[in-house]
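Hey, quick one: can you model this chain's 3D structure?
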Amino acid sequence: MLLTSTPAPPAGDGWVHEAKLDGWRCLVEMSGGRLQVSSRRGGDYRGRLPELQSLSSAGDVVLDGELVVITDDRRADFELLSTRVNRGSRRPSSERPVTPYAFDVLRHDGCDLCGEPWTVRRAIFEQLDLAKATSGAVRTVSYASDGQAMHQATLAIGAEGTVSKKTGSVYLPGQRVRWWTKTKHRSSAAEQSAPGAGVRRRLTRPESPVHKPHDQG
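Sure thing. Here's the predicted structure for all 217 residues.
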């Protein structure tokens, strides 16, 4: 499901807000002891990132999330993530591993949850206890009810921005919806004119001729 850009996080009841991590959207599918981490267009992330091959399964689930590289100062490094994915590697990176950060569950124990409201999906998501079930290999994104406070917090930690979601929203794969929004922090003029600015636009994502059923980028 795709996000709609807004100038500020929506206010009022019925919304929750998360940090927008500066990474690549991914789908984590676990079933029968098998695990797949794919891009929205079907690209195989596990084949490019050896550290993902050791992920342990948390049962029969499909998770929506982001692949992120966290630096020593606890900030997401998009350029390093892009370089690692595009170049691939035969050995896992122990110093700067790529880690899935999950924020939604789309299937659990064979049951499609896309038609359930966010509140129901989130309750199931939290019951999964992914950190324990995957030995910390899959991390989770927390949320808050105060959008402005979350937006200020994401600015302070250097996150890309804030994602806001209607608590009663269903999940529509591949569709851009108004009940999932994103509010990005604007870069300063100095950042935009700094050497290397704009590099992110030239980075490419792995493609695959296989089209996945959940287009979630």
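One thing worth noting: The helical segments are 45-48, 78-87, 118-127, 130-133, 147-156, 189-193, 199-202.
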